[in-house]
Design a protein that fits this description.
Distance between the termini: 15 Å
CATH architecture: Beta Barrel
Radius of gyration: 13 Å
Shape: globular
Strand order of the largest sheet: 1-2-3-9-8-5
Oligomer: single chain
Helix content: 10-25%
Number of strands: 9
Structural class: alpha+beta
Number of helices: 4
Order of helices and strands: EEEHEEEEEHHEH
Largest sheet: 6 strands, antiparallel
Number of domains: 1
CATH superfamily: RNA polymerase II/Efflux pump adaptor protein, barrel-sandwich hybrid domain
CATH class: Mainly Beta
Strand content: 25-35%
Amino acid sequence: MNLPENVKYTKEHEWIRLEGDVAYVGITDYAQEQLGDIVFVDIQTVGETLEADDVFGTIEVVKTISDLFLPVAGEVLEQNETLEEQPELVNKDPYGEGWLIKMKPAADANFDALLDAAAYKALINA
């Protein structure tokens, strides 16, 4: 299983990677494996400012729809438009081309409350 060291993780299986003052958010490799084949990503929160743990969208697989939770407070800037035509990118490359949103973290965004790769690995192996 792929657990990059350059991202932070949530207990709800999202990841966040800060690049300058913009962060990319997606679901983890573990989450996409558990969900199965992703058929649709629905994000209606672009332009909204949300709190940490707020639902920013949903991800649909053959059998179910799962909520997506924002790792830290901030503004949803953009969704990955490529996923409209190719939602399977989340399965193929969850930390790369399969990212879900770009966001601008709030000034007081608490990245320290998130898990590093070792802590996330311990969570999913518990």
